[in-house]
Design brief:
Elements (H helix, E strand, L loop, with lengths): L1 H20 L11 E7 L18 H8 L2 E3 L2 E2 L5 H10 L3 H4 L15 H9 L2 E6 L15 E3 L7 H18 L6 E6 L6 H7 L31 H8 L2 H5 L3 H31 L6 E7 L18 H4 L3 E4 L7 E3 L4 E2 L3 H9 L13 H4 L9 E5 L5 E6 L2 E6 L6 E4 L17 H17 L9 H7 L1
Helix pairs in contact: 1-6, 5-12, 6-10
């Protein structure tokens, strides 16, 4: 066995050395490689470098400290497939016709693999979860699929994804630019944890971690006057059905962070392969997620809701020597921005009707033309969220209850200002932003209405 390990190590080093000796597209060509890393159900605050003391994420911390991070990064839709359709097409889920999980992007809307391979000559590869429509498949339009992943089990399948990406990076021979997508399932395994731990145990399953359980958040409680959609969603979750104790809530938080740490290790394997192959200096690395996780805020778990815990996702961009290390605290950005950003770095025009904007001007210090708001569908056409630099407006179809939060003074979303006369002008400004936005959308025909979405679960 030791001889086998030594032989494998020598092979990996030789492959890496051979790959690094090949000519690679230089910065002068303006066409860097791109590695797009997508996690699943990953809240923006679940990164150690973001100030979270309850987990260790050295790989993501490296990207955070050696690139740009966006504090106001939002999902386009807090549901897996709808969010992924937005990331890979730059169009809203109401336009892609991905109204729920397991639906394909409708014909006529290209994904990033199709567009970059056809228009820019990129080699485009995909490893891991797709979910448009199949979770794991060997056929993704526009991509060569690297085998890996296990549907529904990230704690095992994510390792095969990272190893497939590692093998590609270490053994690659071509000098053409590439787009490599590494799509992981973790920390989505928290969904299975919730199912297995719905009932509060008589005592903590692992007493030795009692001193490590994170405290409950300041916005653990919720206001009685919420929109009906949020109340119904909460009533269907495991904590409500299982009548969780406060200790069990804290155990859930501790468990979620362990799932995040699992995927951080897989991300580290890819970053190591990039560095060892000599490709890190000419590769843009983008890390984001499809949506967040409830994290006990407002007594919530999972996603599909309008609170920030489900909406805010990591967005880290690293390119040594090209992207300055800094945290952008003031510009709202979205998963819709990923596709136009990829096109910008590839040196090509994005497809028509992009709903996002390239992040490259922000990354290069030019924010003059940047929109000051983003809009999320929650989910698809059941609700909408308008997020500006200071405020957040929430509305659901068929519900007279609106929400308006001042995110600077109330980041926990505990004081609804929608009925405040003092904020009537702010409320109307956000409603106008939403009306103008919706007027531009090319909504897919036959999209189910809000009630239909709720009935399908």
């Amino acid at each position: 066995m030791p001889d086998q390990k030594l032989a494998r190590r020598q092979f990996v080093l030789a492959a890496g050395a051979a790959a690094s000796a090949l000519p690679m597209p230089g910065r002068a060509s303006g066409r860097p490689n791109v590695v797009l890393i997508v996690t699943d159900q990953h809240h923006a605050g679940a990164i150690g470098a973001a100030g979270n003391p309850h987990l260790r994420t050295p790989a993501m911390d490296h990207l955070y400290h050696h690139g740009a991070s966006f504090a106001l990064s939002h999902t386009a839709d807090p549901v897996c497939s709808p969010a992924r359709s937005a990331i890979f097409s730059g169009r809203t889920a109401s336009e892609t016709d991905v109204a729920s999980n397991g639906r394909p992007i409708r014909a006529g809307i290209p994904n990033a693999g199709q567009w970059l391979s056809e228009k820019a000559g990129y080699e485009t590869l995909y490893a891991g979860k797709w979910h448009l429509p199949g979770s794991y498949t060997d056929r993704i339009p526009g991509f060569r699929v690297l085998p890996g992943g296990i549907a529904g089990q990230g704690n095992i399948g994510d390792t095969s994804v990272s190893r497939a990406c590692e093998a590609y990076l270490r053994g690659r021979r071509s000098s053409d630019p590439f787009l490599l997508v590494a799509s992981f399932l973790q920390p989505h395994d928290i969904c299975e944890w919730l199912r297995l731990n719905m009932r509060t145990p008589e005592k903590l399953r692992f007493p030795e971690i009692a001193g490590e359980l994170p405290p409950l958040p300041g916005n653990f409680d919720y206001a009685p006057g919420e929109p009906a959609f949020l109340r119904r969603t909460r009533d269907r979750t495991e904590p409500a059905l299982g009548k969780w104790t406060r200790e069990h809530w804290r155990y859930y938080l501790w468990s979620y962070y362990r799932h995040v740490e699992m995927v951080d290790g897989e991300i580290g394997r890819i970053l190591d392969a990039l560095r060892d192959s000599g490709r890190d200096t000419n590769t843009v690395v983008i890390l984001t997620s499809d949506h967040g996780e409830g994290l006990a805020r407002h007594h919530m778990v999972r996603k599909s809701i309008s609170y920030d815990e489900a909406l805010k996702v990591p967005l880290l961009v690293s390119w040594p020597g090209e992207v300055a290390a800094r945290s952008d605290e003031s510009h709202p950005v979205s998963g819709l921005d990923v596709m136009p950003t990829l096109c910008d770095y590839a040196g090509i025009q994005a497809p028509a009707n992009m709903r996002g904007r390239s992040l490259r001007p922000l990354l290069e210090g030019n924010a003059a033309a940047r929109d000051h708001f983003v809009i999320s569908e929650v989910p698809v056409n059941a609700g909408r969220v308008v997020r500006t630099q200071q405020y957040k407006y929430v509305t659901f179809a068929g519900d007279a209850v609106e929400q308006l939060f001042d995110m600077r003074t109330d980041p926990g979303e505990t004081r609804n200002l929608a009925g405040s006369a003092r904020h009537a002008g702010v409320l109307e400004d956000h409603k106008k932003l939403l009306r103008d936005w919706e007027r531009r959308l090319e909504v897919a025909p036959g999209l189910p209405n809000a009630d239909a979405w709720w009935r399908q679960g």
